[in-house]
Amino acid sequence: MRLSACSLTVFSAASSRCSSSATRLCTAAKCAFASRIWTGDGEDMSHEEYGLVGSAYHIVAFQPDTAIQAVLRATNATVTMASLGAIFGMTTCLAAQARDAPDDPLNYFLGGCASGVFLGARTHSAMTGTTACLGLGTLAMFTKVGKAEGWRLTGPPRM
């Protein structure tokens, strides 16, 4: 049985090992706690950090009346981004485990789509959920394909 990259990262970071009969369940449970998008280098900002940065900009741009409103606004955005990361990671890992295809871009599409559905549920809007599902799923899939094939958006040209 092959494990996905996310599963291997979380699995190797854990101090305990799973028995062979419970490998799928244990690996999926450990992936549920992974809140980073797996790209291979392990140096991406976590979704909590994206939430904090976004909250800071939002608080500066639209200044709240009280400090309590500022804390609530920052907490709301941070928790939302952390939830998106956890949902993405869990769905991607579970799809990879269920399909026995650890590096398939479809797993990343499913993770992005699940995150988009969460956004739709959070905003109580089916249209937001549908467009976020398609948009985040497509973005995640192309990010996975781009990293695998060495696509670059910026930087000096290769010689």
What's the SSE blueprint?
Elements: H1 5-13, H2 23-32, H3 47-61, H4 67-99, H5 105-123, H6 126-149
Subcellular location: Mitochondrion inner membrane
Main location: mitochondrion
Family: Belongs to the complex I NDUFA11 subunit family.
Kindly describe this structure:
InterPro entries: NDUFA11. Its main location: mitochondrion. It is a single chain. The chain is mostly helical and 159 residues long. It is 69% helix and 0% strand. It is built from six helices and no strands. It has helices spanning 5-13, 23-32, 47-61, 67-99, 105-123, 126-149. α2 (23-32) packs antiparallel against α4 (67-99), α3 packs antiparallel against α4 (67-99) and α4 runs antiparallel to α5. The longest helix has 33 residues, at 67-99. The N and C termini lie far apart (40 Å).
Short description:
The protein has 159 residues and is mainly alpha-helical.
Estimate the global geometry from the Cα principal axes: globular
Percent in helix: 55-70%
Number of helices: 6
Quote the average pLDDT. 75
Largest sheet: none
Give the end-to-end Cα distance, rounded to a whole number of Å: 40 Å
Uncertain runs are: 1-42
Structural class: mainly alpha
**What percentage of the residues does DSSP assign to strands (E)?**
under 5%
Q: Report the order of strands and helices.
A: HHHHHH
